[in-house]
């Protein structure tokens, strides 16, 4: 159990060293981070039968800075910007760029006397960039393409030099659990966490409370405090759990293994080339202004799950070759990790990472599905893990006080906490 707890913690630490807003029904179109205003006269964007976004021709292209025209005889919409003219014939699966035909997978249409065009091929014909921000239901048009990957890697380089920082973290979770009559009911939870992290020495302090909504009852209470220390050959987690009376009890979990400590001490700076290698896709989603008036760049990154095989390969082999059930389950969990997407915000002025948004559902599903497939588990254990793999969870982390965090010492009563008892292997199988 220690290694499973360690591994889950490790995976989350790796993810955080590399966040998901709620989707809206309205489709938003933004040109160079400026929202296009639609109304009843202009029409509004929609998804057509080919699953492509159709947008009002005039309102969108004028915001894009093009001069527009309409040939009523040929039913062709015309947009000109600079030395490029794009013609968009209605009901035809092609457009013309300066007379050159470009095939498209959907066609412009007329609805209620308003012309709608498939926006992606038209924008790309002008040499501009277009992205779909699924989380915000936004078509993001950037007139001059931006090197989002460079912005991302530069921000990673900056963060690798941090000596310390604080993080305000909010996790929203929904998990199916058995009800009183055998039916499945949903339990909603919100966990608020405050984290302080130092790199030299490697140590983390975390406090948390949770609000639970179950069967019409709303319960809020402190849940857990935690300290983590990492050195050359030891990874120690000090966990303080609160009881119903608000009293905290501390236990300590120590993993003495140089390989594990090396993994837990994952240094972004030392692994920038590895991170870049496994970064599959980076998308620029425009500029946003935060509550303090700062301009933030919103970027989505897709990281290949293969990075874990390279980072954790020796560890996975070590676990897979063990005779211990817990080790084997942990190796299966790590092997099942796949690609994941997350959104981060970068301060335009400083280039610093300031916020993560992440959907953890797919990560939890992969991790717990891998464990649930273990032949060593009982039917009861598999049922419990099945509920965990169906858990929906999103995390938002705001990073503050970069290199200005208040230092902390771990209290003596925490350092003197008893070692958490190891779970007997046979009890896991029974």
UniProtKB/TrEMBL annotation:
<dbReference type="Pfam" id="PF20316">
    <property type="entry name" value="DUF6612"/>
</dbReference>
<dbReference type="InterPro" id="IPR012854">
    <property type="entry name" value="Cu_amine_oxidase-like_N"/>
</dbReference>
<dbReference type="Pfam" id="PF07833">
    <property type="entry name" value="Cu_amine_oxidN1"/>
</dbReference>
<keyword id="KW-0732">Signal</keyword>
<dbReference type="InterPro" id="IPR036582">
    <property type="entry name" value="Mao_N_sf"/>
</dbReference>
<feature type="domain" description="Copper amine oxidase-like N-terminal">
    <location>
        <begin position="34"/>
        <end position="141"/>
    </location>
</feature>
<dbReference type="InterPro" id="IPR046720">
    <property type="entry name" value="DUF6612"/>
</dbReference>
<protein>
    <recommendedName>
        <fullName>Copper amine oxidase-like N-terminal domain-containing protein</fullName>
    </recommendedName>
</protein>
<feature type="signal peptide">
    <location>
        <begin position="1"/>
        <end position="23"/>
    </location>
</feature>
